[in-house]
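queue> holo job accepted (1-deoxynojirimycin)
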Amino acid sequence: MVEFKLPDNFLIGTATASVQIEGGDTNNTWYKWCEEGHIKDASSCIIANDHWNRVEQDTEILKSLHVHTHRMSLEWSRIEPSKGSYSKEAIEHYRNEIKLLLKNNIKPLVTLHHFSEPLWFQELGAWKKAGNTKFFLDYVSYVVEELGELVSDWLTFNEPNVFAKLGYIIGMWPPGERNLRVGFRVQVEIIKAHIETYKIIHKIRENKKFPGKTMVGAAIHIRIFDSTTRLGNMVARAADYIFHELFIQGMTEGKILFPLPSGGYKCKPGRYVDFFGINYYTRNIVEFTLNPLNWFHNLIGDNELDKSDLGWDIYPQGVYRVCKKYYDRYKLPIYITENGISDKFDNRRPDYICNHLIYIARAIKEGIPVERYYYWTLMDNFEWTEGETANFGLYDCDFQSQERKKRKSADLFAFICKNRGLTEAFINDYNTQSTAEKNTV
Ligand code: NOJ
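queue> job finished
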């Protein structure tokens, strides 16, 4: 760890998602996926962190971390439990949760779609049927009418590239579809839903003169693909195009790129985000193989690099590289909408956070307007098919007793938020304490 300083207007916070923390909802696609036995450790999202009943307690934790902003998602299946009928209770719950953040000076960034959907939407064929996209837009309009006065900053979709690949192309996530053609059609629907959502949010907030500057974006999962060989570089470019560019150019510019079916949607080329959202975690080394299907599955690590508990390479330079690449192209403000590490024993998290922030500080110094950083995540939670066995949290959580236990890096994070950086004095103190703690174990 070394000292660093971020600008005074830089916002730092944490990120969470409804199904991963709330518990208690049997009406969403992930609950069903758990019931069907697709989770590696056989756990379920039915309890998770019981956050639905512990909003106040968890907001106290956010306060103690001194976060300036918090990213959360709304659960569509709670808000619209059956098609066309909305739950006053659910929307009231979210209104109160958001009000509590605001009361504590924590700026909300709200995600409308974070992987989970109502079961009724899935039963109708979800994104496979072009006609269904309007149901998502109805939900969006309802939510923005109800909450748009409190929330100026929105994310339409979280990691649509991961969602489409795992859900519709390789069938690892709900709805478990394995069909490349369907996967490409679904991508067009999601791009379309994003663009229409962008317009709806702006329109409602402007018509109703809701306060604050409207900021709408999407959180795209962006990896670095590198290679050490010439043929491998070709694969890296192909992976980048398929995994990133189809969505990025679609959502940001309204371009439907080959091989997406262009007939599906006509949209005026334009700018359909107000900031560029990046979820950055890791890098993959790719190599050429004769079977192109393996190009996108056999992602290898770099033996030289330290890894997270999930085996992901720790490559902090990557955050600088992606910020530079997309700022050079779009000249938009950048929010790091997620960055984090699964590290049960909290050995690598302190350096992980600091080193990524140091690269962000470098980007800012070079004139790249990175404006926010969201650490994934507040507390260990339900990590999709990994279940309860990934540990990204600043807090550990005992899923039985629901006790939240602070990891040491939470103190580091709180200091960073409070001071927008790290000082040498803090680092010395922190290291001395860590060594003392290790010696007493
Ligand atoms: C990205 C996803 O948005 C989030 O839901 C997930 O838990 C983290 N990455 C960690 O894998």
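queue> The first helix runs from residue 18 to 21.
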